[in-house]
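Kindly go through one protein, given below as sequence and tokens. The question is how this chain folds according to its tokens.

***
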Amino acid sequence: MIDNKSNRREFLKSTLAGAAGLSIAPASVARALATGAQDDLVVHPRARADSCIWIWLPGGVAQTDVWDPKSFSPYRQGMKGSEVLGTCESIPTAADGIRLGAGLENIASVMDRGCILRTLANDIMFGAVHLRAQHYMMTGYVHPAGFKAPSIGSIVGRTRGRRDPNVPEYIYIGRDIDTSDNERLFIAEFIGPGFLGVQSAPFMIPDATEGLATLNPALGMTTERLDRRQMFFHRLNELADRGLIESTKADHYRKTIDDARAMMDSPVKRAFDYVNEEKPEVVAAYEPQISANELLDQSYYFGRRFGHGLLLARRLVESGARFVQVEYQYGPFKGFDMHESGRDRMIEMKKQIDGPIAQLIRDLDERGMLDRTLVVIATEFGRTIASQPAAGVEPEGSSESHNGENLIIENEAMFGFHGHFSSCNCMVFFGGGFKRGYAHGRTAERHPMVAVENPVHHIDAHATIYTALGISPETSYINELRPIYVTKDGKGRAVESLLR
């Protein structure tokens, strides 16, 4: 009998320390031994949100033309880089005192329901290395971390668990399942479960417009035949070596197979039938406002893929999903990774994200879901004026201190924010307990446009998101006999001024 709190704490720590991926989170001792969650060690906050839709716009969004507009500086051949403060006009929004970059008129119409963090500050300089910055935003840890860091989606899914037993807790929409080179392999790592293991891996949906064939049996395969095969699989497993049968990792893989079979009869399958179940005008609102032949680079166009991914995300949350991430797929020098023609390419990108994001917010609000669904819009770092004519070759830290005084804008291809800017960035939140119609912090009006009022570092931004979702920033998981915290060293602190 363990009869005092401190001894219980030590007992639980020693009992569970040997198993990788065990959670230090509130539950009973019995549940702790069964699932890895531990009582008394962490007090989780009251959850303001039950679900999260994380809109991931990798490539480095130029915050000064989107969420934090500055003075419009029209192109003039021979102008100095220091004169380029904004490549578009700013527009008013439905929230008093908040302005966005032109081209986001639809999102502007719902900003009375949004919260902008304009001073996401960072002391780590990533230079032009996008993937390290993406790893940091997705996991809260700088690579190499010394362990395989879980993504925020895996952490939320593992800690909060499933809302519906047949719906995966972490779903990822929009990224091809591709590990054909080191870059794609690395991305698969930091959007994945890390040391938490296969049971916390994302359920991947590459393209919402193509459905998911694996939710339907192959031609000629009946439900009864599928179930017989699954039963045969489990019987074969019973013939394996005792060590394999009792292996935790093997059990996780078996459960993954069982979960996949359960999904074939679950609400997940119906969520894909949005074309038939949604009103035509709603589906149309998720379409991009530009076609491929209007782009400067027609080889990089995803059409309806991003917008329909958001529509599917909403339907999956309605079906019981916990965490859904939707990506406008990253590609070097493509999308938001603008190394030239920044003004024109930003116009193109806005036409692909503005309508769908705004429609998602309207849909959630009209259905009474926005209060309990947190929508996050994020990218890996911001943009600034390039430190030299050939953007993308600047050494780490040079863009962060560069003011553009010595850069001459010789042509329109140079007109835009092509420098990589780790020092300051923006995040946007809708619903899920965040304030409405609120912009937090202020940045300098001239280069370098660093945070000058109310900076919020990444660790505390992550802590705020976890807090809204009912997860203590001090939550940890045991990996190789040591605790790994969801915010580095458990030191993240929620920014209460962002929350309602």
About this structure: Confidence is low (pLDDT under 50) at residues 1-21, 24-40. The longest strand covers residues 114-121. The first helix runs from residue 5 to 16.
